[in-house]
Amino acid sequence: MDMTQAIILTIMTAATPLLLAAIGELVVERSGVLNLGVEGMMIMGAVAAFAIAQLTGSAGLGALGGLLAGILFSLLFGFLTLTLVANQVATGLALTILGLGLSGMIGEAFIGLPGLKLAAIEIPFLSDIPFFGRLLFAQDPIFYISIIAVIGVNWFLFRSRAGLRLRAIGDSHTSAHALGVNVVRTRYLAVMFGGACAGLAGAHLSIVYTPQWVENMTAGRGWIALALVVFASWRPGRALVGAYLFGAVSIGQLFAQSRGIGIPSQFLSALPYLATIAVLVIISLNRRMTLINTPASLGKPFVPER
Amino acid sequence: MKKTLLSLAAATALAGIAAPAQAAGMDKVKACFVYVGPVGDFGWSYQHDQGRKYAEEKLGDKLETAYLESVPEGADSERAIERFARSGCNIIFTTSFGYMDPTNKVAKDFPDVKFEHATGYKTEHPNVATYDSKFFQGRYVIGQIAAKMSETGSAGYIASFPIPEVVQGINSFMLGAQSIDPDFKLKVVWVNTWFDPGKEADAAKVLLDGGVDILTQHTDSTAPMQVAAERGAHAFGQASDMIAFGPETQLTAIIDDWGPYYYERIKAVLEGTWEQSRTWDGMAEGHVVMAPYTNMPDDVKAMAEETEAKITSGELHPFTGPIMKQDGTEWLADGEVAEDGELAGLNFYVKGIDDQLPQ
């Protein structure tokens, strides 16, 4: 493996959890729900994945556990905001705070234990392609899922009837309701999908990226995923570009430092965020495109009229 | 009139009794701790919390403790410290460099509460003390080990923030390495965080990809150790013994042992003998402990043990001249030893480090 490949691999590992969590949240927001609890669902996924992998001895079951934990946690959000119609912003923030605290409590017994790592799956023949084979076809299962999720969500949102309904709800839940679409049920499913993605992204952190459990190990990645959704202007393909761009700039600055390039490290550390702001400014220059993509009833509570 | 005199006398008598009682201390003390990371980081904050538990165990019923974890440095920490001061804490330990100004600010408003700030240098009020450990002593030892063990003649250093304590560590590591191999190369990567396992792992991967075969870190998670283990490189544990994360990887670890210090200082509050101090202890006092030397040949181990013994006895000080600054000018003349005060404000590299120190 040469150095370019090694660096790209590092970037891919850094980008995968961001991409996965962003894709989940993208679907949630497309349905008109703003869930700021991504960080909380992610950390719950991380602790559940680690704990279950330890207890069962199987990293695969751990990943599944992380996914389920994300769904369970998102259901709490769904119940509060969709059934009880609580404020989405406040509930999402509460979910993050609860997740960070609860995961610390659950994970106390697992501190200081080396974890199991989810094994890479090498796809026969394809992984033998020079240069790209090792990069694209000899990865951990969560990486494959993240790429499939991008393609799948893109197809679902823009090519399927159900996706059209989901977007209609996101743009105007009252109109969709009047047309006989079950707004609350669709939103529940979207929120659960978001939870599953965030949970799996957390699992990636604790059983692939850094196979260990330490409190607060998400370190703000849930928030970056949220920013990526806006960055992507709610389009899956752009979320992929955004996540990899962010990963590339974060790793690139570390690499530049290790090569002894004389740029102040504080500036280099700020680069990923500066890049994000720059792209956001460029995107928002085209106001019409932004408006078309933004779900119009994002964050608004929905109470069905009887 | 007589009555007034009597009561006055009584009051004086009472005061007379009360005053020595105060000096003799109190029955129960409440000690509070502010941590920069989660107690479960298995690094810096974890070790401080172990120290808290040690003091609790030693003092039993006489001690009540409380702690706040993951408190960001800066304005947030001021609120946290003030909350503790209001809630009846008798002594407050603030355990990160960035709490320095907030600690002094709150201390001004609460003269009866004792404040202890770790790794800083400001004691603006009589109720503020500072404490730190000479981790650079351990870093000299691991620098020597790195120079002996590296096949590429280079090591990677994952650094957090360019504060004096971190700069001391980098310099001391390099001086140790140069004492074995004068051409030793050190690559420094600043991650600008104390704790982010993912980012620390990224930095570790980038350094190993760049050709170093030994890693050391001044950040708090075990992630770099794990990356080194995966790649078959070697690494040094930080703050706590991280051997579980790299049974065939860890060469040794520099362990922070805060327990004895916390016990002593809290006991001093109990007994009423607490005084402002600036503690900076190291191997000799047992505040800096080296984990067992593992995964190295016997001659390297013997060398490390000898250096450790020399530093403990005071025979060897890592910052002994001749030492040149990075720009080639002289810092310490032959045989000259750096003073503690100068080290506490260290803001330049020694010669041979291939990095530009962020200012």
Automatic annotation (TrEMBL), chain A:
<feature type="transmembrane region" description="Helical">
    <location>
        <begin position="93"/>
        <end position="121"/>
    </location>
</feature>
<feature type="transmembrane region" description="Helical">
    <location>
        <begin position="239"/>
        <end position="255"/>
    </location>
</feature>
<feature type="transmembrane region" description="Helical">
    <location>
        <begin position="267"/>
        <end position="285"/>
    </location>
</feature>
<dbReference type="GO" id="GO:0005886">
    <property type="term" value="C:plasma membrane"/>
</dbReference>
<dbReference type="Pfam" id="PF02653">
    <property type="entry name" value="BPD_transp_2"/>
</dbReference>
<dbReference type="InterPro" id="IPR001851">
    <property type="entry name" value="ABC_transp_permease"/>
</dbReference>
<dbReference type="GO" id="GO:0022857">
    <property type="term" value="F:transmembrane transporter activity"/>
</dbReference>
<feature type="transmembrane region" description="Helical">
    <location>
        <begin position="188"/>
        <end position="207"/>
    </location>
</feature>
<keyword id="KW-0812">Transmembrane</keyword>
<protein>
    <submittedName>
        <fullName>Nucleoside ABC transporter membrane protein</fullName>
    </submittedName>
</protein>
<feature type="transmembrane region" description="Helical">
    <location>
        <begin position="6"/>
        <end position="28"/>
    </location>
</feature>
<keyword id="KW-1133">Transmembrane helix</keyword>
<feature type="transmembrane region" description="Helical">
    <location>
        <begin position="40"/>
        <end position="61"/>
    </location>
</feature>
<keyword id="KW-1003">Cell membrane</keyword>
<feature type="transmembrane region" description="Helical">
    <location>
        <begin position="213"/>
        <end position="232"/>
    </location>
</feature>
<keyword id="KW-0472">Membrane</keyword>
<feature type="transmembrane region" description="Helical">
    <location>
        <begin position="67"/>
        <end position="86"/>
    </location>
</feature>
<feature type="transmembrane region" description="Helical">
    <location>
        <begin position="141"/>
        <end position="158"/>
    </location>
</feature>
Automatic annotation (TrEMBL), chain B:
<feature type="domain" description="ABC transporter substrate-binding protein PnrA-like">
    <location>
        <begin position="28"/>
        <end position="303"/>
    </location>
</feature>
<dbReference type="Pfam" id="PF02608">
    <property type="entry name" value="Bmp"/>
</dbReference>
<dbReference type="InterPro" id="IPR052910">
    <property type="entry name" value="ABC-Purine-Binding"/>
</dbReference>
<protein>
    <submittedName>
        <fullName>Nucleoside-binding protein</fullName>
    </submittedName>
</protein>
<dbReference type="GO" id="GO:0005886">
    <property type="term" value="C:plasma membrane"/>
</dbReference>
<keyword id="KW-0732">Signal</keyword>
<dbReference type="InterPro" id="IPR003760">
    <property type="entry name" value="PnrA-like"/>
</dbReference>
<feature type="signal peptide">
    <location>
        <begin position="1"/>
        <end position="23"/>
    </location>
</feature>
